[in-house]
Amino acid sequence: MEESRVGKGTTGGTGVTEIRRELENVNFPATKNDIVTKVGTREIKLGNRNMSLKDVINRVPKDRFESRDDLLREIQNNVPEFRSGQTGGGGVGGGVGGGRS
Questions:
Q1: Is 74 inside any structural domain?
Q2: DSSP states of 45-88 as a string?
Q3: ω into 29 cis (within 30 of 0)
């Protein structure tokens, strides 16, 4: 059984770094079910609240993701807590969202 982890690598309240770290061992392309199975019930901090990564991913309507950045874009566009937890400029870190892929 997966252990729950909260606040791993949090800087400035943004969940991007945490989500990227939790997805390091996920091979893309991947389905929502593949990702949820891999990350288990791990928690991340979004804004001022903790949410399980499973709950965050399940709030995204898309079922298949071509890359980690694809998933992060979908989370950014569909999970209000993620947007409100961002600090600084737009995009999902590392230049994601600034151009077409």
A1: yes
A2: EETTEEEEHHHHHHT-S--EESSHHHHHHHHHHH-HHHHHT--S
A3: yes
The answer to whether residue 64 sits within a structural domain is yes
Q: What is the pLDDT of residues 21-67, one digit of tens each?
A: 889 989 999 999 999 999 878 888 877 788 888 999 999 999 999 99
User: What is the tally of structural domains in the chain?
Assistant: 1
pTM here? Answer: 0.67
User: Which amino acid, residue 18?
Assistant: E
Query: Residue 61 is part of which domain span?
Result: 16-84
Are the C-beta atoms of residues 53 and 43 closer than 8 Å to each other?
yes
CA distance 63 to 97: 19
What distance in Å separates the CA atoms of residue 16 and residue 35, rounded to the nearest whole number?
Answer: 16
User: 89 falls in which pLDDT band (50, 70, 90)?
Assistant: very low
Integer Cα distance of 1 and 13 in angstroms: 27
Quickly count: other Cβ atoms within 10 Å of residue 50's Cβ: 13
